[in-house]
């Protein structure tokens, strides 16, 4: 990633965990993005303090209010970003915001299933639609015909928990709604890769590993990966992605994850 020069990147769920890790790492690059848009529900709230501090030191970091489950909020965010970019387009959309309910198969509910699916699957669909015009602009302005992340890409942060063939960690946490939503997100990524290929937009699902975040700690066991290790690995993977990878499901080290 260090060799790539991004004009613009947007990260959802950027006030904590992996999202905040992406922001920190991207700002620390030798060639940081000219524009880094970090979204969260309440930019002025207590949970966004670290993000606020970073924004006060980095003029290229713009905090954008966004509730990913609200279509009107998504449209407003896209309009705000578009105004800032002044026609130059968005290079990279990282759909990181996610929800998890620690329910078992027996305790899963309609309300929780709907909420998790809306956040983890429907929101990335609507965000892709809303930011498609900006992604297309970025692809059109970039030289060359190949697909790379610094040109135009959608990266959906998925999970091996959504792997139907592996069902990793079932004995630790069943988290049925989360697993179903991430399996659906993987299919969405495949659909986006097919639908947006003609526009030169790369689409990939990434498993960040089991990371030491609020969500990762939900099982009551300390996960093996730090945020820094996960994000650093994912950025390295992103720097090596090309057209052949579009529509794939990879982990933070670049390994193929089984569907």
Give Rg in angstroms.
17 Å
Count of helix runs: 6
* Strand runs, count: 7
- What string gives the helices and strands in order? EHEHEHEHEHEHE
Q: Which structural class matches the secondary elements? A: alpha/beta
Biggest pleated sheet: 7 strands, parallel
Return residue spans where pLDDT drops below 50 for at least 5 consecutive residues: none
Per the principal axes of the C-alpha atoms, what is the gross shape?
globular
- Gap between N and C termini: 26 Å
Strand order of the largest sheet: 3-2-1-4-5-6-7
Keywords, please?
about 40% helix; about 260 residues
Could you please describe the fold and organization of this structure?
- The chain has helices at 17-27, 49-57, 71-85, 110-141, 176-195, 227-240; strands spanning 8-11, 35-40, 61-65, 92-95, 153-157, 202-207, 249-251.
- The protein has 259 residues and is α/β, with parallel strands linked by helices.
- A seven-stranded parallel β-sheet has the order 3-2-1-4-5-6-7, with helices on both faces.
- The radius of gyration is 17 Å and the shape is globular.
- It starts with 7 loop residues before the first strand and ends in an 8-residue tail after the last strand.
Quick overview:
The protein is of the alpha/beta class. It has six helices and seven strands, in the order βαβαβαβαβαβαβ.
């Amino acid at each position: 990633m260090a060799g790539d020069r991004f004009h613009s990147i947007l990260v959802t769920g950027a006030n904590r965990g992996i999202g905040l890790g992406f922001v920190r790492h991207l700002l620390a690059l030798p060639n940081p993005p000219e524009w880094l848009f970090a979204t969260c529900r309440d930019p002025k709230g207590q949970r966004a303090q670290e993000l606020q501090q970073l924004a006060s030191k980095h003029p290229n970091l713009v905090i954008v209010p966004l509730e990913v489950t609200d279509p009107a909020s998504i449209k407003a965010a896209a309009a705000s970003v578009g105004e800032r970019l002044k026609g130059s387009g968005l290079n990279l959309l990282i759909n990181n915001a996610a929800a998890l309910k620690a329910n078992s198969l027996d305790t899963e509910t309609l309300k929780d299933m709907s909420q998790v699916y809306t956040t983890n699957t429907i929101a990335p669909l609507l965000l892709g639609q809303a930011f498609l015009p900006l992604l297309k602009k970025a692809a059109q302005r970039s030289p060359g015909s190949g697909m790379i992340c610094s040109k135009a890409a959608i990266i959906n942060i998925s999970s091996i928990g959504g792997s139907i063939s592996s069902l990793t960690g079932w004995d630790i946490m069943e988290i049925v709604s989360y697993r179903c939503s991430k399996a659906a997100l993987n299919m969405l990524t495949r659909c986006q890769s097919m639908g947006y290929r003609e526009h030169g937009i790369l689409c990939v699902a990434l498993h960040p590993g089991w990371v030491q975040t609020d969500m990762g700690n939900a099982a009551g066991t300390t996960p093996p990966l730090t945020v820094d290790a996960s994000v650093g690995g994912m950025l390295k993977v992103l720097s090596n992605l090309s057209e052949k990878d579009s529509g794939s499901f990879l982990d933070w080290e670049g390994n193929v994850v089984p569907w």
